[in-house]
Amino acid sequence: MIVLFQMFVEGVAAGSLYALAAVGFALIYATTRTFHFAHGATMMLAAYAFYQAVTVWQWPAVFAVALAVAVAVAFGVGVERLVYQPMRRTDASFLTIFAASFGLLIVATNVVVLLFGNSFYSVDSTLSRGFLVGPLYLSWVNLLSVAVALVSITALQWFMRRTRTGVILRAMMDDAALVGVFGLGDRRYGMIAFAIGSALVAPAAILTSLNAGLQPSMGALLTLLAIAGAIVGGIGNLWGAALGGLLLGIAENVGVWQLSSTWKPAITFGVLLIFLMFKPDGLLGAATRRS
Amino acid sequence: MLSVHDFHAGYPSVPVVSGAELRVERGEIVSLFGHNGAGKSTLMKGVFGVLGDCRGEVRFNDAAVAGASTRSLMRRGMVLVPQERGVFPSLTVAENLRMGFWASGESARAEYDRRLARTLGYLPILDERKDDRAGELSGGQQQMVSIGRALLAGPKLLLLDEPSTGLAPNLVDDIMALVTRLREEEGLSVLLVEQNVGQALAVSDRVYLMKGGRIIHEATPDQLTWSRSLWDLF
Questions:
Q1: Residue B212, domain extent
Q2: Average pLDDT over residues B30-50
Q3: ipTM of the complex in this document
Q4: Are the C-beta atoms of residues A175 and B88 closer than 8 Å to each other?
Q5: CB–CB contact B75 A183 (8 Å)
Q6: Which of B72, B80, B102 has the CB atom closest to A181's CB atom?
Q7: Cα dihedral B106→B109→B111→B112 (10° resolution)
Q8: Which tens digits make up the pLDDT trace of B3-19?
């Protein structure tokens, strides 16, 4: 039973990071209607930037974190400005933009392979260590994951409710065309959504690299987890996406209680399949639509 | 206040309005009547800069504004109340109203408070429901939110696109009474597209009849009411 509790703790920590990725994906999708498949590439690039700064260049952690956030935001905003916006101006279809996004993920992954190789890297940090609370082992990385997710999502909630930009972004989530009728919600707001959504994956990138190390395939996996979290939570609902990401993290960790950890992806996408079949609106999607 | 000359509007490769001519004077309520597909809403959206494929002359307050962005028109005082109410359902009533204020390009708190107080004076129900999500309101209340949001933008000319759609007759009466009050007390000009001819005639100073994308006649409400031949035109 202790093992099960331990796995639940690990699941909450992993789910906190998935929640950040899923909320970022959901924010971008809901405001711009862009199925940003390259979201995982943002995370992968941020993770490698952090690794390069802290391990190779030996920068202080705070500067390495700042670089990772800057790389994530620059990649997200750059893709929106240089790829998606020109495509939208030519009335490119949803599928065309999706294909471009998929291509971006592959290109970004290959660039990382060229620069760093296909090898597995780890980042040495005291945060990987932890302490015992009774029979449970808590690592600093796991505690930090939960804390960062809570702070980030609470800050986003405040921003979306209390600031003019946040309210306009929420209005775009309801009806972007109507926002345009009011002369608001122009291209800048799309870039703001990408900036925030991309910044949210930077902590996930850093903490994942501390906890599980880095390899180029991490981008594709995180994209799938973010999409799965957003769908399980109710596509287009930010807080549902957070809940969905958390749920997936807990499910994949608790689910391998009696199984090999190689079953984790199967459990994650099994949960997604169950939701798609029996509750396609997700956890909070139907409530949002009714209201 | 608004004059439209030889105006053509439509969608890519689908022309809808051709050669439209109309004007709205200061403090005037002007209605556009016509069957579904006559081009009334397309003309209104074209004038407001929502459609891409438009040409012709549009003057607003003596300035040429054809091709101007909706943002620029809103800041000059031309405000559209879109068809089907068009509220942001997950935003509160107060947030919906604030969207109108922001669209006007104003940011001073005192000006917002002044416009809000004036709007709530016309639409007190919005004060009672200000913290509720707009999507939870009835159709009539949502229409009030849509009009209230337009008032927060500080309009000089309101473009009302079928405000009575889907509403009970008594609510339509309320909306028409509100339009009349806004003209009398605020000096607002109104261009009204409406299927509900009887109720719109009662508040209009002049009307235009549209058919097949063209304005085919201009008349006063009296002329339209008593002329069988005008009715036969559409």
A1: 1-71+191-234
A2: 89
A3: 0.88
A4: yes
A5: yes
A6: B80
A7: 80
A8: 999 989 888 778 888 88
| Residues, chain B | 234
Q: Which residues of B touch A291 (CB under 8 A)?
A: 89-90, 133, 135-136
A183 touches chain B (CB under 8 A): yes
**Residue of A164, A171, A181 with shortest CB distance to B91:** A171
Measured CA to CA, the distance from residue B97 to residue A37 in angstroms comes to: 35
Name, in order, each residue with C-beta under 8 angstroms of A95's C-beta and a sequence gap of 6 or more: none
* Alpha carbon separation from A53 to A50, A64, A71, A106, A215 (Å, rounded): 5, 5, 12, 24, 16
The residue extents of the domains of chain A are: 2-290
Beta bridge partners of A131: A138
Q: Hey, which residues does B8 pair with through a beta bridge? A: B55
User: H/E element holding A178?
Assistant: helix A164-181
Predicted local distance difference test score (pLDDT) of residue A53: 96
What's the rounded Cα separation, in Å, for the pair A248 and A243?
A: 9
Number of domains present in the structure of chain B: 1
At the top level of CATH, which class does the domain A2-290 belong to?
mainly alpha
3-state helix, strand, coil in chain B (%, to 5): 40, 25, 30
Which pLDDT belongs to residue A284?
Answer: 85
The two tokens of residue A211 are: 């906890």
B80 CB near a chain A CB, below 8 Å?
yes
Residue A85 confidence (pLDDT) above 50:
yes
Compute the residue count for chain A. 291
Helix (H) / strand (E) containing B185: helix B169-186
Distance CA B6, CA B214 (A): 10
